[in-house]
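DM between two lab members

TW: hey, do you still have the SDS3 homolog, SIN3A corepressor complex component entry open?
JB: yeah, one sec
JB: this one, 104 aa:
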Amino acid sequence: MASTLISPMVDYYNDEEELDSVDDDDDRSFRGRDSEEDTEDASETDLAKHDEEDYVEIKEQMYQDKLASLKRQLQQLQEGSLQEYQKRMKKLDQQYKERLRNAG
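TW: and the structure you got?
JB:
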């Protein structure tokens, strides 16, 4: 009976040593993962920074394009050659002439 009690205790201690060695292995693999994750995080940060720079550049280009378009429209308006302006003036002129006919 005494031998049966000793045997499970010996197995228990052997199992504990195995668990300790497994824990050490896990720690090493986690450290390796941390390093990989740090590298991934850094590359994601670089990618996000690059994407943000691209976004700012595209946004700036869109702003410059819109500004140039508005300046062109203003120039055409001042020259009287803006199509939208000409259409509205023609419509106003027709309404004016029609009102003159109806009033007279």
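TW: got it. Residues 1-5 have pLDDT under 50 and may be disordered. The chain has one domain: 2-103.
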